[in-house]
Amino acid sequence: MHFYLDQLVNRIVSSFGFPPLKDTTVPTQTFRSTSTSCLSLPAMELPEDTPPMYPHPLDDDNATEVLTWREQYLRNFSSAIRNKPNWTEKVLDRALVVKWIREAQDQTRIWQWKKILAWNGADIEFAYRELVEAYKPFVDAAKAKPELYGLEPDMDCVWRSDSLVDEELRKELIDAVATLENVPDDQKDWHPGSERQVLDLVHPSLWPVIYGRSISLIDGKPINLPESAIDDSYSDRFSWLPSEFEIGTDGKVKIASYINNLSTADQQKLFYPILERIFQRFVPLFNHVLGDLRRGFQHYSRVISPSHYTHDNEEVEWLFYEPHKENFDELLGQFERGEEMTVCMEKFTHQFPDTPEGEKLRESLEDNYWVEPGEDDYEDEERTERRDTAPYQVRDLGHLVMSNLWTPPEVTDETKLEGKTAKVIVKLANIILTPEKPEYSGGSWHVEAMMNERIISTGIYYYAQENITESELEFRRTLPSMEDMSWSLPQDSNWTTVHNMSSSGNSVQEIGGIKTINNRAIAFPNIYQHQVQPFKLVDPTKPGYRKVLVFFLCDPSEENDVPTTRVVAPQQPEARKDLVEALRQGPLGSLPEEVFRLIVEELPPVVTREEAEKYREELMTERSSFIENSDAVQGGGYSLCEH
User: Fold this and answer.
1) Do the beta carbons of residue 239 and residue 219 sit within 8 Å?
2) CB 3.0-4.6 Å disulfide test: which of 23, 391, 453, 507 passes with 318?
């Protein structure tokens, strides 16, 4: 038993003249604790200038440099190809790759109301080499390793698997979750503010650690805010409550302390063996996210920004439609035949002379150069032809470093979870659509929790979906402060075109998304803000749903001192009933009823459902306000128009 409870029991027993009990152990199903020591180790003392092992979105100096538009379209192309079925075989068919490149070029050419030359020979060579020489060998090798459970890289630092969980285990999870779903309507926990579309089954905002009220099982005293909480990135009132997952050197997982809001004896017996096996399959995904973060791969760039910027209309050359079509066809032909790509698209550009006549011609060209089609308008042939045959602007989009191909992270003893105890927060939720409410409007941009929990990575398993349209989980990242940038750039600078950024706004940059298809598992770093995209019913006459299991991985390094369920007794009234029954079935059950009741009365007090919901509202208000006002999440404001 925990030291505090040992002391509590024997103190009360001794007051009645009974000798101390030698064995007061609570059955392991009650606390699920297999730790040999009940003492909580203090956080590792690190020199002040030592950076954390893994970055957190609220750390100082955690921003990443802005990506060029050129890098973005190369990344998006690669990700799209690698999401195709059997892509590792299809990519060897150069004729098929040519088709993909044509599609990508057609989608890329019009950007920020400009028709810009993209996909030159260097782009094609780099994209193909990265797919064939970097991604394909890794994915082929991973497929031959059952212990990796179908792991594949997605965008940088994001990992996925579409075969993580076999059908038998998935069905076990669905059946287990049904016991949480099939409750009377008045007991269903609809997420506040979700208009009864998001059903919380297990959510960490209910019964969290409440500083000053939640009681430590080690010494019986209230748990207080850690001494390391020195700024407003910490909550001074609440912390989500992680469990301890022990990962063996063989990868097997044991849930060593109860899961908050899933802690009754029946729930532990039903859910924990299932969750242990699913988390075991998530371990390789988390290992690769941690490996990427350890090497700082979130800062990796394939394209270096231009060394200088000009007015957006200066130094623009033009490539007309016919020479582009002719030379692009030849360039793709060289690629398809496996020849050296010698066609240089930029050689066929035209620049108007710096004379009044040249200026007049250029302005005339720009005025008629193309028209953005309205979403609700049909395009007549003249409009379509004018856009399709308009010339391309040829711009400096940055320097592509041909050697900067993707490489996999090294999973070392330092970073991998095997042989360690992970602090994990579990969430189960359903998004439910009905004919009356057929659309889900999507989520907000956010990171998970605050510095108290120090969540480093999130793993999501989309284990059941029915009658909903395709959706994505989008990502973005915070950029360094751009407050002073406007003074170092020309008025109306081409910086915005080069980087696909607006001239004013917040210093964040969207970096793409991942499709959230049925039975897909993904893991991503918390330094990437994420947003659930909208979706709706396919058949609006029938209901539909999405069901997710989420694992939040707290910082696995030793400096993370967030309290876990090994330290905090279950605070739910129903869980307390199980604890009392477990005590009664143990050695304490032989004590006189009066003594037994005194022991029970001295246990840490429960938090009623009404109180828990009130605390949840306060927690959500606090964190929503923090996220909305945090420059680390929303990015600082900037304006490149202010001169």
Assistant:
1) no
2) 391
| Axis-axis angle for helices 94-108, 69-82 (nearest 10) | 140
Say if pTM beats, i.e. exceeds, 0.70: yes
Longest dimension (CA), the chain: 109
**From the first residue on, what is the mean pLDDT of each consecutive set of 10 residues in the chain (643 residues)?**
58 68 53 39 47 88 88 96 97 98 84 77 97 98 96 98 97 98 93 94 97 86 83 91 97 96 92 98 98 95 88 72 90 96 85 61 55 52 69 88 97 96 98 97 92 96 98 93 62 78 82 96 97 97 98 88 89 84 80 84 86 96 88 73 50
Q: What residues contact 60, with CB distance under 8 A and at least 6 apart? A: none
Q: Which amino acid is at 135?
A: Y
Residue 518's identity, in one-letter code, is: N
N-term to C-term CA, the chain: 68
Residues ≥6 apart with Cβ < 8 Å to 528: 157, 158, 298, 475, 476, 477, 511
* Element (DSSP H or E) covering residue 521: strand 521-525
**Mind giving me the DSSP string for 581-598?**
HHHHHSGGGGS-HHHHHH
